[in-house]
Amino acid sequence: MLVLCGVAFAAVTGTVRAANPVVAIETSHGTFKVELFEDKAPVTVKNFLQYVEDKHYDGTIFHRVISDFMIQGGGFEPGMKEKKTREPIKNESANGLSNLKGTLSMARTNVADSATSQFYVNVKDNTFLDKAKARDGVGYCVFGRVIEGMDVVEKIKAVETGTAGGHENVPTKDVVIKSVKVVKEEKK
Q1: Distance, CA of 2 to CA of 11 (rounded, Å)
Q2: What is the annotated signal peptide range for this record (predicted)?
Q3: Confidence of residue 185 (pLDDT cuts 50, 70, 90)
Q4: Nearest CA to 62 among 146, 172, 171, 179?
Q5: Fewest CB atoms within 10 Å of the CB: 14, 27, 62, 157?
Q6: What average pLDDT does the chain have?
Q7: How confident is the model at residue 100 (pLDDT cuts 50, 70, 90)?
Q8: How far apart, in whole angstroms, are the C-alpha atoms of residue 88 and residue 11?
Q9: How far apart are CA 92 and CA 48, in angstroms?
Q10: The pTM is what?
Q11: What pLDDT score does 17 carry?
Q12: Whose CA is closest to 27, among 181, 175, 158?
């Protein structure tokens, strides 16, 4: 098997597949697929995939949507009910990846190593969140990128938002994450 630019080519079968794990995030607005950069953010990807395996994300919502910034989900159920999570993980923001449009990153508090289950998709280039440019000197860990269905992300970023339960930028109608599943990505 030959690997070029993060894509593995199977010379014998003629198939092409992503070198890293791929997940399908099915939402009430459609499905998008994300390649996870296991090679660049192993702790973060392992953590995310454990939440996927536990079906933690199923039935959660995109609870924070800022149309010119990002869409964030993975931690709340409808009604802004926060879900229980595992212990926080190490921040891998020094992995050389940038918070560019279409990338998936971990949300966290002001504490560097505080990410648990919440993630966000950048809807524009947000390089000020990269470790090299972050005001706090820490930054936010990029661990994947949308490889299919960016139009779904665009639909989500356009939803109407308001304030709910003391939180701002909450969609007025729930944007539900129906499921997150690992998929085999093979194309001819």
Answers
A1: 8
A2: 1-18
A3: low
A4: 171
A5: 14
A6: 91
A7: very high
A8: 41
A9: 13
A10: 0.88
A11: 52
A12: 175
> How many residues does this entry show for the chain?
188
What is the average per-residue pLDDT within 36-47? 98
b/e per residue 62-74 (b: at least 16 CB within 10 A):
bbbbeeebbbbbb
pLDDT at position 184 is 75
- Give the C-alpha separation, 138 to 92, whole Å: 9
CB 83 within 8 A of CB 117: yes
Report the alpha-carbon distance of residue 184 to residue 132 in Å, rounded: 34
SS (H, E, C) the chain: CEEECCEEEECCCCEEEECCCEEEEEECCEEEEEEECCCCCHHHHHHHHHHHHCCCCCCEEEEEEECCCEEEECCEECCCEECCCCCCCCCCCCCCCCCCCCEEEECCCCCCCCCCCCEEEECCCCHHHCCCCCCCCCCCCEEEEEEECHHHHHHHHCCCEEEECCEEEEECCCCEEEEEEEECCEEC
Please compute the mean of the pLDDT values over residues 133-160 and round it to a whole number: 98
**Smallest Cα–Cα separation from 175: which of 72, 32, 27, 13?**
27
What CATH topology corresponds to 20-187? Cyclophilin (2.40.100)
